[in-house]
């Protein structure tokens, strides 16, 4: 099948994108549309009919911004920015894969994963959180793949540059260092004692990035709501490419994450919408809501979460297949299955941009996508993005939808804007890549603009029927 096109001046390109066609058996969407098609089988289970999704108002809500909005980084061209992003993304994907290696031995007193830009990317999305009393506003990386919450603190013998002033624990009336003999300190996989019997944490990596300091209880102000007694790392020596952020907000499945610490207060749930960055999108539209609220959409598709004892912080989902257009790709059974030894599986991750698939699945998706778009002019690949097109002279082109088929019958059909990423003026690339390991990662480009609810208490993740 071949796409049709009409030539227009380049100035009009940003206003177009992908149009719907009813001329073939494939389904098509506008790349900048707000269409989001989901469907479930009658047998698909969900918590939506039980009290587990009871809505409560006044849950803490935060605006979520993309890293580029505050990093201050400037690039000669969009291509340079994409190459920088892809380099961070590769590091992130490789780090997640290493986390499942039998030889991976993190040295952390908090028993969770502190991310550094050198080792796994700076994180793509930030939120604004008040730390201490009175609150000091700080940008924190949002990371669904780790548990620890930490900020750089004064006095800082070694710190990287951040957008906000350093947090000064001496200026906070609610800062309380955790003692070595406390229950919280004893929960850590390993711990040390510093001056005044304070519980110390330290995380180091082979690339030289690290953070260390004291573990403390502190008040965090989240969306105007003060949350008291949150265990955070107060880092006095830190090194790495965190690119403007003051620290990290862990939202993983472990007990040290913010969701885990809130417990019943948040109901073990949070919702987020990642701001779309494509043409016609609202870059300020991102949000993060802690707890169950009106942010949990009616009619959401609920997909069971899968627990991996080898990586308890990760949110895995059971994926059974992928479709291009209305055609399910002929992939071997069990390709996305999580094995007994913790390998494979599919992780939802906010810190990885480009979705990674096993080589066989990626090749099948790429070939089916290329066949569907037909004679569109190809462009050279950009780093790991090997399927690119020169659309600089087109008003409209047709692309097929991509669908994820989950276990128990749920199907998520992506909006077209979540399939291609612009890497240069008019050059668009398919935002998927082969995985460096057997593990698959559903990246944030594919999550953008979709209301996603993680209900870890009940073991489900929900995809809203509309965009946000």
UniProtKB/TrEMBL annotation:
The active site is at residues 143, 349. InterPro entries: Aspartic_peptidase_A1, Aspartic_peptidase_AS, PEPTIDASE_A1, Peptidase_aspartic_dom_sf, TAXi_C, TAXi_N. Residues 38-61 are annotated as: Disordered. Belongs to the peptidase A1 family. GO terms for molecular function: aspartic-type endopeptidase activity; DNA binding. The gene is LOC101769974. Keywords: Aspartyl protease, DNA-binding, Hydrolase, Protease, Signal. It comes from the Eukaryota. GO terms for biological process: proteolysis. Residues 41-54 have a biased composition (Low complexity). Residues 125-464 form the Peptidase A1 domain. The lineage of its organism: Eukaryota, Viridiplantae, Streptophyta, Embryophyta, Tracheophyta. This is Peptidase A1 domain-containing protein. Residues 1-25 form the signal peptide.
